[in-house]
Amino acid sequence: MTGDPEPISAQARRALEQELADLRDERRLVAGTLHDSLSVGDQADQADELQRADQLERIDRRIEDITERLRQAEEAGPAPTDEVGVGSTVTVRFPDGSVESLQVGELAEALDQTLVTADSPLGRALLGHRPGDTVHYQTPDGPASAVVVSIGGSPTSS
After folding, report:
1. Record's NCBIfam families (predicted)?
2. N or C: which end of the chain has fewer CB within 10 A?
C-alpha cells in the first residue's frame, strides 16, 4: 500500500463498524467491573483488577485503530476505477482460461471466496495495475500470473 489513505469496500466498512460497536459494548462491560483501587481487597482481587485494566487498554487501542482506519477511508473516497486499489473489484484471467471477479480488501472473511487481501501475494501484485496488465506473484506451488481484464462491477466467481 502507498501510505496514503486507502479506500475500503462497503463490506469491509460494515465489518469494521460492527467490530467497533462490539468493542464499545465490551468496553462498557469491562469498565463497569473496574473498582476504585482503594477498595480492592486481597492480592487476587488486585490481580483481577490489573487484568481487567490491561484488557480495557487493549480494547481502547483497537477502538482507536478502527476509528482511525474508518476516518482515513472516508478521506480517501471511493475505490479507484482506473487502476486496482484497496476496495476495487477486479476481473482477472488466469493462464488456465478461468476468469474471476475479486474484491481487493483489507479484511479476510472466512467464507468470502471473492475477496483477496491487499497484503496477499495476488492482492499485492494487482495493486496499481490497469486492464490489460499481466501481474506475477508467488504461490505455495510456485510462480503464478494473471491478466487484469477489467476494474469495477460486482465480485463473482466463475
Report:
1. PRK05892.1
2. C
Helix locations, the chain, DSSP H: 10-33, 43-76, 121-126
Q: What is the pTM of this model?
A: 0.56
Closest by CA to 126, choosing from 156, 149, 143, is 149
pLDDT digits (tens, 9 = 90+) for 46-60: 788 888 899 999 999
3-state secondary structure of 36: coil
Q: What class, spelled out in words, does domain 89-151 have in CATH?
A: alpha beta
94 contacts 152 by C-beta, under 8 angstroms: no
> Which position has the grid cell 478502527?
66
Full strand arrangement of the beta sheet holding 89-93:
115-117, 99-105, 89-93, 142-151, 134-139
* Residue extents of the structural domains in the chain: 10-76, 89-151
Q: Please list, residue by residue across 9-47, b when 16 or more beta carbons sit within 10 angstroms of its beta carbon and e when fewer do.
A: bebbbebbeeebeebeeebeebeeeeeeeeebeeeeeee
Of 147, 152, 14, 8, nearest to 86 by C-alpha is: 8
